[in-house]
Design goal:
Two copies of one chain form a homodimer. The first copy, chain A, has about 90 residues and is an alpha+beta fold. Chain A has helices at about 10-25, 35-55, and strands at about 5, 30-35, 60-70, 75-85. In chain A, strand 3 (about 60-70) and strand 4 (about 75-85) form a beta hairpin. The longest helix of chain A is centred in the middle third of the chain and has 18 residues, at about 35-55. At the A-B interface, helix 2, strand 3 and strand 4 of A face helix 2, strand 3 and strand 4 of B.
């Protein structure tokens, strides 16, 4: 499945909703952000989504990674965030 | 313990080194970033730190959360990233 592409103009609440839907569907979600503004919205979305799943006793974690992507034929470095449910064994 | 305060001028490699040291010491680390530029460096640091711990068979995950802090008497919203080792039960 394609990653959720987050931009600096994305609404973190909307992205959080999409994130929860994708995770419910396939167990995890991948977000892609290019630039500090986009990443900011992506991370806010994860923080908000944690609040969405908390009432059902779940929690979300994310693992960031670099990704080389191409935009309009130019190479750029994106940050990917893999987001998934925290397993119950995982304690903070 | 105080959170690692990351700014937009922080070097992600240095922050990654500090992160790994703190996690080795106390099992987890907390980062605090105010603003998109600072958060960008913080998330890059986690991605880099994942590479630092990978050769020993470990992985790191983070859980973002909002935090109300005060800077020079003014209320600001920071993003906190709780970073810890992924447990082996947690699969991606």
């Amino acid at each position: 499945m394609n990653p959720l592409k987050v931009s600096s103009r994305s609404n973190p609440n909307s992205v959080a909703g999409a994130l929860v839907a994708v995770i419910r569907d396939q167990g995890f979600a991948e977000m892609q952000a290019v630039g500090a503004g986009a990443l900011n919205q992506a991370v806010k979305a994860v923080a908000i989504a944690r609040g969405f799943v908390a009432p059902s006793g779940n929690d979300l974690i994310c693992a960031p990674a670099f990704a080389d992507i191409e935009i309009n034929g130019e190479g750029r470095t994106a940050l990917k965030l893999l987001v998934e449910k925290r397993t119950r064994q995982q304690s903070l």
